[in-house]
Amino acid sequence: MTSAKTIAVAMSGGVDSSTVAAMLRAEGHEVVGLTMQLWNQRRLAGHEGMPESVQGRCCSLDDVYDARRVAETIGIPYYVVNHEERFERDVVRPFVEQYLSGRTPIPCSLCNNHLKFDQLLIVAQQIGADALATGHYARVEFDQAIGRWLLQRPADRSKDQTYFLFGLTQGQLSRTLFPLGGMMKPEVRELARQHGLALAQKPDSQEICFVPGGDYKKFLDAYLAEQGEALPDTAGELVTTDGAVVGEHGGIHNFTVGQRKGLGLTTGSPLYVIQIKGDTRQVVVGQQEELYTRTLLTHRINLIAVADLLEPMRVTVKIRHRHEGASALLEKSADDEILVTFDEPQRAVTPGQAAVFYDHDVVVGGGWIA
Amino acid sequence: MRRVYLDNNATTPVLPEVLTAMQPYFGEHFGNASSIHHHGQETRAAVERARESLASLVGCRASEIVFTSGGTEGDNLAIFGLVNFGLSNPGQHVITSAIEHHAVLNSCKHLEALGCEVTYVPVDGRGQVDPDDVRRALRPNTRLITIMMANNETGVLQPVEEIGKVAADADAYFHTDAVQAAGKVVIDVRRIGCDLLSISGHKMHAPQGVGALYVRKGTGLRPMLHGGSHERSRRAGTENVPGIVALGKAAELARKAFARGDLDRISGLRDRLEQTILGEVEATGVNGQSAPRVPNTTSVRFDGSDGEALVIALDLKGLAVSTGAACSSGAIEPSHVLTAMGLRPEQARGSLRFSLGKQSTSEDVEFALSLVPQTVARLRELSPVYNKTAVSHKLLAES
Description:
The complex is a heterodimer. Chain A is α/β, with parallel strands linked by helices. Chain A folds into three domains: about 5-135 and about 180-215, 3-Layer(aba) Sandwich (Rossmann fold), CATH 3.40.50.620; about 235-285, SH3 type barrels (Roll); about 290-370, Elongation Factor Tu (Ef-tu), domain 3 (Beta Barrel), CATH 2.40.30.10. Chain A contains seven helices and 17 strands. In chain A, a hairpin with a 4-residue loop joins β5 and β6 (about 150). Chain B has helices at about 15-20, 40-60, 70-80, 100-115, 130-135, 160-170, 190, 230-235, 240-260, 260-280, 305-315, 335-340, 345-350, 360-380, 390-399, and strands at about 5, 65-70, 95, 115-120, 140-145, 175, 195-200, 210-215, 285, 295-300, 320, 325, 330-335, 350-355. In chain B, the strands form four sheets. Chain B has a seven-stranded mixed β-sheet with strand order 2-8-7-6-5-3-4, with helices on both faces. In chain B, strands 9-10-14 form a three-stranded antiparallel β-sheet. In chain B, α7 (about 190) links the parallel β6 and β7.
């Protein structure tokens, strides 16, 4: 970044994106702050046990206020853009439907694919910005040798967000900047302090932004009530891996693979959710060791470091954000479908989550676990 | 950077003469207008002169003017001061329109929550209420009709004189929100036949935080603010003397501007802006173009472009315009006014409002015209929804 550019910064009101805006401004770029208004927490207020004033993190006025104050402090124009309709269609609805069909969704990836690096990137281009910068911990660079944009893990491994970014296309990556990719979080906080940002010590956000308190079951109830829809009856049987019925459950959306608590069963050895069968509404339970599988199938593939998977490839695969990654072989099993075979069986492969493929620091690509 | 302001329906700059007129009332003449001593007498006289000026602007007696903090307070005072609500008065009925400002719309929503019934009459494709719809909405218990004089987004004038007749025939009160009309068209409350009419200072080159409500003599209005006997016990609270003096001066300047024909200059600039955009940019239209409108406003529809991005892109180049209504975070919500006129949501989202003021010049308009066509073109080029082929087919079909 030697020459000054016009750069839009996706500002959430948090430390990371605020620091990005301050850094880019200090480097002499024309910086425009943008915040997406995605969800109105007041919608669910008073529904199904939600309090009259719902305190979720998503698009709270406090966060917009913080972002606006940062923009004012560093002297950049700042705008809030409304993408509530798209967010509901592309993130909230699928989130609800996935849970109701027995899967465990990752809304952050959907938001990145459909909102941040799609809608917001378009707005950034439309208002004359050359690129969109975000506060994600990841790195993007162009590899001259292969002529492709690469997504790579950041310096601060504990903050690595590449798992949520596997869906970015070459076009999106070419217009995206992750200025924090080479920094450690404490350095970012220190930089925020040096730039006089009042929020330098603001705590990191952890939970799903639109789910207040992280209680997704309450959210499902409240959202469906607000929509005037009944929570579908997904109650059914608890069965063992042999098919023996050992009990009943109140709805498949209450379960996730690997879960131990809340099964309502008293047995000698602890039981875990092994599988959720959306079609028969059965929740399969079993022993800890039955949670381990050697293969998984991914679909809706996005490849970043390679144009296509022409022959089997050895990679490290992460099957959830906090998974450390495991060695595996990738094989194309059908069009837009990849078979992952691990060297060692992996615990709790969860449909609805993503499998992201890494070659050391480089994100090869990823897909959704079928 | 050169900055041009074409968002005068949001707020207007205080005119220099207005600022000069109000300045002595911060320091030199600081008295409380209710005080009996010299200082109070000075400011009392200033307040009453301003009241006379407002009365001249709308064609009423000075005693029929109540000073308020602005348009929202005037609308709330009119509505909640007249309509009986609560358990002891169930079921009074109010008629309003689908295109009112939120100050009226949300007041009516609150009335509904308090047990009143509200009818929201629609508008036609030009953005006008049909007085016959108002007549048909009447019920024996209709207490109040509240319909705006000019719409803030389109500038379309409503048939308030006809609605005034409907109200008179039905013996219902008639309030009109004239916030976007004051200073732009001649207002005569007797001809309109309204009982109440709200005005906001900052929409007519006075400062923010002052307004006026015309209340026809004999109208039993309950105050909302309780306290002293200010404003003939219709609005308690020490008067905002500098603001009131400023509003009086702005009203005087507005009357002079009508007499001099200044509004013709503004409508000429507006028409040049509108016609040039329509001529130079494909797939555009003016919302409410064929309806009578205030002279300073044009709402232009740029099909296949996102108004929100347009406002930002233009602001970054120095042109201030607006679209829709901003919510508490500052994000833009789809316009209830434009969708009520029958625009599809994407058309409403692709609409921009240009509103001129007394300070606007032909150079301002040329500056806008140097930016708008190229910015719209850039947006459309990058738009996933704008399909050039589809638009040109549509244009062929329409021509």
